[in-house]
Design brief:
Elements: H1 2-31, H2 35-47, H3 65-73, H4 75-108, H5 114-126, H6 129-142, H7 149-157, H8 161-171, H9 175-183, H10 188-199, H11 201-217, H12 220-225, H13 246-278
């Protein structure tokens, strides 16, 4: 009976993984298709023709034309790619500089109003961008930052989501370890720097990975705050692609996926070690 249950679980997990991976397989196969083939398959969706869209798992005549066109003949792609990198890493740097000390203070210090601040952080974390869009737009316009990269970076730097993640990990550090450090004469900053950050690295890495994915894929914020096309990130490049540029669109989607995948893979091992360290019990 247990073996049968295991088989059903494996089958279910395989089907679930296949469904999740299908869009990636779809995009990869589209990269190597010729333009006429893409137009034939996608015309009912992107071309406005009648009929049902269809797809083939493998291209009939594989070609690298879409990749060559994107990497050799599309300077706009590289401008937007650089803008995405700039926005993402500036946001990550800001969230780390401001978020790590804030999360540590909320997790390890007691002060009046702490519970109210935590509730406020949770409420702000749950608010969608559409709720804060108008106030942020008016404030950024008033201080003269609208239509600059700072208009996208600053609101994201002070996001409450990474603070909430790091707060949970910092709160899981055993108090006995911190008390032993105080007995040895360590001050608050030394405890934070030498104990808090190493043992809470899992939360920092987790918030960094999730923060990068969120900032790398953001669409609404740059669409609202950036009017100059030369400032747009790569996430605004894809919606402008039509049927005639479908191959280049698939190639751009894969190129956009690569940095996010590399960030996740490079932090995976350290993330696992950090989770194990933060899971220490007294």
């Amino acid at each position: 009976m247990k073996k049968i249950t295991k088989i059903f679980i494996y089958i279910w997990l395989f089907l679930l993984a296949a469904v999740i991976c299908f869009p990636v397989v779809f995009a990869v196969s589209g990269v190597f298709m010729q333009q006429w083939e893409l137009e034939e398959y996608l015309a009912p969706v992107l071309g406005g023709t009648e009929g049902m869209a269809r797809w083939a798992a493998l291209p009939h005549a594989p070609t690298l034309q879409s990749l060559v066109e994107l990497l050799m003949d599309s300077p706009q792609f590289f401008v937007m790619f650089w803008n995405s990198l700039k926005l993402s890493f500036c946001i990550l740097a800001g969230q780390t500089i401001f978020g790590v000390p804030t999360a540590w203070a909320l997790a390890r210090f007691s002060f009046p109003g702490k519970r109210a601040i935590l509730m406020l952080y949770i409420v702000l974390m749950l608010m969608p961008f559409q709720v804060l869009m108008m106030p942020e737009y008016l404030v950024l316009n008033q201080i003269g930052l609208l239509d600059t990269h700072a208009a996208v970076i600053l609101p994201a730097v002070f996001s409450t989501f990474p603070v909430f993640i790091m707060y949970r990990f910092f709160g899981g550090i055993p108090e006995a370890i911190l008390e032993a450090a105080r007995i040895d004469g360590a001050g608050n900053f030394q405890i934070f720097w030498r104990i808090g950050i190493p043992l809470g690295a899992a939360g920092i890495v987790s918030s960094g990975i999730l923060g990068f994915l969120e900032s790398w894929n953001m669409i609404e914020q740059p669409m609202t705050f950036l009017k100059t096309r030369s400032l747009w990130p790569l996430s605004l490049f894809l919606p402008e692609i039509g049927l005639k540029e479908a191959g280049m669109g698939f190639a751009a989607a894969i190129m956009m996926l690569i940095p996010a995948l590399l960030i996740f893979l490079s932090g995976q091992e350290y993330l696992e070690q950090g989770i194990a360290a933060a899971a220490l019990k007294e």
